[in-house]
# Entry
Amino acid sequence: MIALEKVTKRYGRQTVVDEVSIAFGGEGVTALIGPNGAGKSTLFGLVGRLLQAEAGRIVVDGMDVASTSSSELAKILAVLRQDNHIAARLTVHDLVEFGRFPHSRGRLTLHDREHIENAIGYLELEPYRDRFLDELSGGQRQRAFVAMVLAQDTKYVLLDEPLNNLDLRHMTEIMRLIRRMADELGKRVVIVLHDINFAATYADRIVAMRNGIVVADASAREVMRPDVLAAVYDTPVDVREIDGKPVALYYG
Amino acid sequence: MLTDPVPTESGALTTVGLHRTRLATSWASPRVRLAVLGAVVLALTAGYLFTDVPGSLAFALKIRGLTVLAMLVVATAVGVSTVVFHTITQNRILTPSIMGFDAFYVLISTVIVFFSGSAAFLAFDQLTLWLVQVVVMVAFSVLLFTWLFGGKRRSIHLMLLVGIVLGTFFRSFTEWMQRMLDPLDFQVLSDAMFASLTRPDETLLALTAGLVALGCAVIVPLLRTLDVLTLGEPAAVGLGVDHKRVVMALFAGVSIMVAASTALVGPILFFGLIVANLAYSYAGSFRHVWTLPAAVLIGMICLLGGQLVLERLFGFGGTLSTVIDFAGGLFFLYLVLRKGAR
# Structure
């Protein structure tokens, strides 16, 4: 499990993560939701050791993030951030290869190559393996990054808003893949989402944040209630049952 | 450049075709490309060493051999440091000169001329001058780096900004002092401020080569890590790179190389930009195993070619930096315009 104990992060005087204590990363998919500025990405940054917490402790499977070597953590925890701008021209294959860096330090073994091939296959990227990333559509590009994370072969996979800038079809495609990764490969996926209906459809558990604290942490059905969502987003949200599934309506 | 069709959403057939086109357009593997560069360098070296020999061949070889060695040292320092700097900063239109290396070199020389006159400057012990230059430049860049990157702030951009501001300050200060110089002193100083690779001092060349080798020794074990750094800091950290430690080590290597070679030949970083960007488009791979040697070899071609043009075409009627600056300026414009068009 990824356990946070009273973790606090401030930018200047502003507290963005406020004494958060929570454990996530159980089996299946956990969705992290909340309005902009709630501290979701900051929380990911802290777990992914990009940011340093002012106070508190983060422990991943018994390893303290602050004191464990970065390369050890990279073998059990993969983090995909929101914007991945790359100055160099890489092909899909080059990118996925990087996923093996924590294990091989750049000297690929046969075993590494297997993982790379599997990841490319799993994300159906074979036709694009030699394409440059800037020649891909947004959806294909995002799949390539997910493939890199998959090649990293970690127990935990943290994805920060992987649906950003994707159209309907590609959003659904990515979410299905994430669900399959959890069900078939046993990955424990934690994912930041803005579309709560995607969270409700694909996640086993929803954690809601607001103003740096966790305001809800329960199963999808329990969180998908008008009063809970309205409190999280500070805006009226209607929830209707369609075919036995809760669907949030927030289009005004 | 590659001219690929617009990516199609669902077209296995087109992609197969694309794959073939790429193999066809990519005329050679990185290894072959590098070998071609090596051959060009060897040819230019032979041309420089053995043609147009006025007197004794042995004497010419000795003098010119030293110049070629100096070029090799400088091309290595400039090529490697610029490419590494680009990777660290995630920006391909900078050179390490932004950290004020060149500005510092000019400032130190100006201060000496200002306070003790050109006669004393010319009589100054070369070794002492070189040592002072190297120590001051390394100390300054390391200070700047540990202050703005090693501390809590950890911002490369802030470091670059402070570097630009301080560099501008040193340049203005230098100009102000130069304005008050005796015209003769100024003449001597100006002469010294153009990079010159001919007739290097043997001891200094050996010392510089040593420091450049030291810089390479720091950087070479990190080649694969450098590849990961091209993904940017967040992704690199996610892949288990100890970003702070690695970047500090790389930067130390860059500082040592740049300081030593600048102290040897004068402000020389200007052509790092051309060399590095040519290397990226030519090397055929983004991997530093290929781009770094390509940058060094292209640097050699620039220096040897520039020197040949200068000596044989213009009869020393100019400076090497003028020749390379002219070509480099044009190339830079091309880069900027192409970037804008994309």
